[in-house]
């Protein structure tokens, strides 16, 4: 039987290792767009970066409503769905700082600066999502 995760459990789950999130944004016609992202949890916010001219970047600038799904695809399966509103920043120092931290999580400390330099450039957005709703269940197959 699936169990609801506590606040501490879902935070640990989404921050574990190199789990990616599937980001859902709203297209101009109201249809969903889903893309995988690298991210970090910063208090009550999810932080990631994306290109300003990508589909997800344009969608977020136009309509900040998002949903993120982070899951473990191995038995007994667990998942966390986060919903909230996104805010964007084009401050290059802030973008580079977070791009470096995100690079460290996914590529290791030895490549963090490389990813910070690659993604901390004009045309990139820093996205912060204030988490409003959480659905988190573990051991769904038990």
From TrEMBL:
Keywords: Oxidoreductase
Pyridoxamine 5'-phosphate oxidase N-terminal domain location: 8-134
Top-level taxonomic group: Bacteria
A molecular-function term among this protein's GO annotations: coenzyme F420 binding
InterPro entries named in the record: F420-binding_dom_put, F420H2_bilvrd_red/Heme_oxyg, Pyridox_Oxase_N, Split_barrel_FMN-bd
UniProt keyword Oxidoreductase, yes or no: yes
GO cellular component: cytosol
Coiled-coil stretches: none
Gene3D superfamilies recorded: Electron Transport, Fmn-binding Protein, Chain A
KW Cell membrane (keyword) present: no
Protein name: Pyridoxamine 5-phosphate oxidase
